[in-house]
Amino acid sequence: MIHLERLTWDNYDDVLKLKVAKEQKEYIVPNSDSLIHAFFAMTENKAQIFPFGIYLGKTPVGFMMIARDVPWIEQYYGSPAKYYYIWRFMIDKRYQGNGYGKEAMLQALDFIRTVPPAGEAEYCWLSYEPENTVAQKLYASLGFEERPELYEELAEMPAVLKL
Ligand SMILES: CC(C)(COP(=O)(O)OP(=O)(O)OC[C@H]1O[C@@H](n2cnc3c(N)ncnc32)[C@H](O)[C@@H]1OP(=O)(O)O)[C@@H](O)C(=O)NCCC(=O)NCCS
Q: Is the CB of 128 under 6 A from ligand 1?
């Protein structure tokens, strides 16, 4: 029932309204800010950004933004030609705890493995606040491995998965 839909003129408004719980606001910026960040990453840094709504049938339940060729990531992680980066990921507070986040991540990984929107890659990276144990466990269950040696420079915990 869960699927990803590219953000378009037709659906962006509903997806931008989705919100995390108050105590989760330190883990992610509002979705509208993410799109503004995407604009600057694309226009100023020549990054490739792929924003998606996460849908349960016709109902938008979350947001995900996948990135490629992000210069400030390259400086930490190595050549941008070899990976995708899950830059933003959230499930609205009303829909959390139902398995939708995990299913959305599985579909995102399947998507970048099978129909990579900016060419094939070897790795998928992401990062999270170390106290965000729900995200940490979810990513670990999918095979992401933490890279604590990069933590201090990034001020977030990076983790990587071989695609
Ligand atoms: C992280 C997030 C996307 C997970 O989405 P979700 O739909 O709630 O996750 P799921 O229902 O698929 O659950 C995934 C796992 O986390 C567990 N989990 C989910 N919510 C939990 C909670 N509040 N407390 C403890 N465990 C929880 C589930 O039991 C499940 O574990 P399992 O696979 O062992 O059964 C969601 O919590 C969120 O949007 N958080 C705020 C934003 C955020 O932190 N984004 C990530 C930034 S890196």
A: yes
Which residue's CA is the closest to the ligand 1 atom numbered 35? 99
Q: Note whether 150 and 127 are within 8 A (CB).
A: no
Task: Estimate the share of the chain in helix, then strand, then coil, as percent rounded to the nearest 5.
Answer: 40, 30, 30
At 67 the three-state DSSP class reads strand
- Confirm or reject: Cβ of 28 under 6 Å from ligand 1: yes
Query: How many domains, in total, are found in the chain?
Result: 1
Ligand 1 binding pocket mutation candidate from 23, 134, 142 (most atoms within 8 A of CB):
134
Atom of ligand 1 nearest to the CA of 91: 39
76-121 per-position pLDDT tens digit: 776 656 889 999 999 999 999 999 999 999 999 999 999 888 888 8
pLDDT, one tens digit per residue, over 43-65 is 998 899 999 999 999 999 999 99
Range of the domain at 72: 2-162
Domain of 130: which CATH number? 3.40.630.30
In this prediction the pTM is 0.95
**138 CA distance to ligand 1 middle (Å):** 6
